[in-house]
Specification:
Blueprint: E1 6-7, H1 8-15, H2 19-29, E2 34-36, E3 39-42, H3 44-186, H4 190-199, H5 202-237
Helix pairs in contact: 1-2, 3-5
Length: 238
Amino acid sequence: MSKNVKTIKELADELGTNKTRISRIINKNSIPTQKIKNKIVLEDNSVSLIRQYFKNETQQQNETQQQNETQQQNETQQQNETQQQNETQQQNETQQQNETQQQNETQQQNETQQQNETQQQNETQQQNETQQQNETVSILRTELDKAHSHIEKLSNLLDQQQRLALQDKKLLEEYKAEINDLKALKMPSQDTKEEQANSQPQEELETLKEQIRALNDKIKGQEQLNNQVSKKWYQFWK
């Protein structure tokens, strides 16, 4: 093979690629070739063009690959940033949920504490009211006992007064009987009067008059006392 020409395989081996790629570059860019002994060969000009196209294509592929890599890196970075944002947002949401839960728990604890305090206050108030009621009942019982004792004393006094009244009544009847007897003594017949006037001394007559007046005064005083006692008991039981 002439030194000025190269086969497609030789050029592919030189450029580190395959014949298919070289053939594609030739067909795409209409690079002239020659055929010697049923083999396609390339002259120096064609080789130079293929090298330039290969270089450009390789550079373009590299650029495209770099762009793809850069795009992929950007996408990866964007995905990472998006993932980080999502994670941050999720953390924020989780933190917010935790704070909300903590606030709810704190609020529930405060409400529970307030309910317990209110219940304790109500129980204390109820205990105070019960204690006050018990004290009131105790005071009323004491007053009732005093009233019963006072009524019992009054009843005893009433019984005593009734007995005294019966005794006074009996005495009054006796006084009246004595007065009647004295009056019978004081009112004899006319003949008897003359005989007594002649026979009894004046002092005995005066003594009898004094006794009559004393008995009358005693009867009036006892009647007034009985009337006053009766009025008092009437007003008490009224």
